[in-house]
Amino acid sequence: MQPFTVKILGCGSALPTQKHYASSQVVELRGKTFMIDCGEGTQVQLRRAHVHFNKIAAVFISHLHGDHCFGLLGMISTLGMLGRTAPLHVYAPAEYELLFTMQLDMFCNRMDYNVVFHGVDTTVSDTIYDDRSLTVTTVPLNHRTNCCGFVFREKPSLPHIRRDMTDFYGIPQCYLNNIKNGADWTLPDGTVVPNIRLTAPADKPRAYAYCSDTKYIPTLHEHLKGVDMLYHEATYCEEDIKRAALYYHSTARQAAQVAKDAGAGKLILGHFSARYNNEEVLLKEACDVFPNTFLASEMKFFDV
Ligand SMILES: [Zn+2]
Ligand SMILES: [Zn+2]
C-alpha cells in the first residue's frame, strides 16, 4: 500500500504562542504533495519537515483568517526565488481573488511560474480537484467567515498480482499489466485461468478529512462517512463550550462526537487555543467519546 501521509506543520489557533505554529499541513499521496492552509511560519516548518517546496502541486485554503493564509504570499514568493516553473494551483474562498491578484501583481510579478487561482464556493459540497489518484471535495463549515473543510479521497487502485500464481502458470512479465487490468490467462491446451485466481483484491481506497475552523455542526458527519482519518479543530475544552459557540469554534468533545458519528478510523485534534498549557485535557475529553483520538503537534506525521 502506498503511503498516504499528513504532516502537521502548524496546529495552533489565532494568537501566536511559543508552542505552536499557525495552521498548515501537508498531504502526500502517490508521489503528490498538497498543502492545506498556510499560516505564518509555514515556510520554516516546510524546511523542518524536509518537504521540497517545489513538489507542492496545490494549496487549499479553508478560510480567510490570517492564521490560515498569512503565509501564502511569502511561500509563493519563495517558490519564485527557488526557480519554480510548474504552475501552482491555489484553491481559496472566491472572494479572495481580487486582493490576491493585486498582491501577486505587487510582490510576485517577475516569477517564472504561474499561480492559478481557483475560487471556491464554501457554502456547498463540491469536488474541486480531480486527478488520476484522488479527488478533493469541499465540506461547508460554520465559522465567522466563509469556511470549508476538505475531504481527500483516494481513487480505487488496481488489484494486486499474485506472483505465486503468475509464476506457476509461466505468465510473461509483459502480460502482467493486462492481468492487473482484469484479463484472464489461457493455457496452451485452451484452459482459461480466470483473473480472480491470478490477483488479490485491491487495497480499500482511503480518505482523509480536514475540518477547521468551525462551530459544532451536528450533521457534519454526513459529509465524512467512513473517512479513515479526520482532523477536526478542538479549540476549547468542555468548560469553555459557551465561548466555543460564541467564537464559532468547537470543543474537543464535539470534535470527537463528529468522528464517532462519521464512523471515522481515527481523530486528530488541532487548532488549540493559546489558553491551555496542558492539551491532555482536550485529549481526555475527546477520548471519552471517541477513544482513537490523537493530539496534533508540529512535525508529527500521521498515516491515513
Ligand atoms: Zn483559525
Ligand atoms: Zn478562523
UniProtKB/TrEMBL annotation:
This protein's record includes keyword Ion transport: no
Cofactor(s), by name: Zn(2+)
Protein species of origin: Xylanibacter caecicola
Residues reported in the UniProt entry to bind Zn(2+) 1: 63, 65, 143, 213
Gene Ontology molecular function: 3'-tRNA processing endoribonuclease activity
Catalytic activity: Endonucleolytic cleavage of RNA, removing extra 3' nucleotides from tRNA precursor, generating 3' termini of tRNAs. A 3'-hydroxy group is left at the tRNA terminus and a 5'-phosphoryl group is left at the trailer molecule
Protein name (Swiss-Prot/TrEMBL): Ribonuclease Z
Active site (record annotation): 67 (proton acceptor)
Family indicated by similarity: Belongs to the RNase Z family.
